Amino acid sequence: MEKKAFVTKEMVEEIVKKYPTPFHIYDEKGIRENAKALKDAFSWNKGYKEYFAVKATPNPFLINILHEYGCGTDCSSYTELMLSDAMGLKGEDIMFSSNDTPPEEFEYAAKLGATINLDDITHIDFLEKTIGYIPETISCRYNPGGYFSIANSIMDNPGDAKYGFTTEQLFEGFRILKSKGAKNFGIHAFLASNTVTNDYYPELAKQLFELAVKLEKETGCDIKFINLSGGIGIPYKPDQEGNDIKVIGERVHQVYDEILVPAGMGDVAIYTELGRFMMGPYGHLVTKAIHVKHTHKEYIGVDACAANLMRPAMYGAYHHITVLGKEDKPLDHVYDITGSLCENNDKFAIDRNLPEIEIGDYLAIHDTGAHGFAMGYNYNGRLWSSELLLKEDGSVQLIRRAQEPKDYFATFDCFPIYEKLK
Ligand SMILES: *Cc1c(COP(=O)(O)O)cnc(C)c1O
């Protein structure tokens, strides 16, 4: 699939008059079309709900767009709960899927009336001691161990993952929770990440639906929802074929009709906690070439760095790059595209075929809408960029200003650097 940027050189030249590079920019139109497609794909399920994984893109303006399509939030930390609270989201709109959870986070989640998704059997006691009761609605995260495979090909390795209850613990945990007053039960599992195949959700659904039938039969617990969590990926590379959410929805429906309906469980709600799929493709990191360096290799130095987008440095992840205004030029140069961190892995691309790049060219780094800005950090004293929203009418809205030195130094109450320099 050809990857086209949703901004042009002319648009960026206008934007930078007000908001200098680097910045993350999000495409409202794309976000809306995708959110609608997801909603339609699961409309066969009466209780269906997507809880957007806040960690992927913790920006209230973007989450509010998703909320218009019925999405809630999936939180895993205190500040993510605060964000949902400040946005006015109600308990039923919040899923709290955390792990290694501090007590004050369970307290806050319970106060908001969020659905708590427990990560471990010992958290039953921990939760009860912390908040003083077991909520009527409760969910448990499942980890079957071993490998997660589809048609003999290994997709991921849950046996090596820190999350979730084992099968035995899940049965025991449900019994304990029931004895402590829980009434509405949910199962959650996240067994493979960034899957670029329509098979992941249907295969996961099959495993969870079979488990749910057994659990309900053997423990007498009333299973109200099954949470397929995140994991639907996006095609970062141009040669990858993206997921077809309509097909995925239909195939989960088939498995639902085959397994849950005959077991008398045709009223179970399907939940999802997608992050990457909801936002990933609808964000670009826009950065300017500020240096051309010729040594043992050809380097282009840009004004963004791994502090603005960590995935390439952290995972060696591929992010497609469009040199704006040179979309039709031949890819006859080979470059490393680097940031300024004093770390040799601060490269957005290595040995990438691109058109000739000159100082002042703008580069759009694709698919930064999820796990992009959000993973930003301040190493080397580098500051976070701004976040902009490209609205459907073509206008641009600032949805988070860039960090300034005063923000970076703000926690030095004991040595107020910024104040000393004023
Ligand atoms: C990260 C995460 C998600 C979202 O994952 P994506 O790969 O972005 O879809 C959903 N649920 C939980 C519990 C997570 O930790």
Query: Which small molecules are bound?
Result: pyridoxal-5'-phosphate
- Average pLDDT works out at 97
Distance between the termini: 52 Å
Tell me how many strands there are: 19
Tell me the major beta sheet.
9 strands, mixed
CATH class of the largest domain: Alpha Beta
Number of helices: 13
Tally of distinct domains = 2
- Taking Cα atoms only, what radius of gyration do you get, to the nearest Å? 23 Å
Task: Output the structural class.
Answer: alpha/beta
CATH domain fold name of the largest domain: TIM Barrel
Helical fraction equals: 25-40%
Low-confidence stretches: none
Descriptive report:
The chain is of the alpha/beta class and 422 residues long. The chain folds into two domains: 9-22 and 281-412, Lyase, Ornithine Decarboxylase, Chain A, domain 1 (Beta Barrel); 28-279, TIM Barrel, CATH 3.20.20. Helix content is 30%, strand content 23%. It contains 13 helices and 19 strands. Strands 1, 12, 13, 14, 15, 16, 17, 18 and 19 form a nine-stranded mixed sheet that branches. α2 runs parallel beside α9, α5 (103-112) crosses α6 and α8 runs parallel beside α9 (245-260). It is globular and about 70 Å long. It starts with 8 loop residues before the first helix and ends with a helix. The model has no long low-confidence stretch (mean pLDDT 97). Bound molecules: pyridoxal-5'-phosphate. Pyridoxal-5'-phosphate binds next to α10.
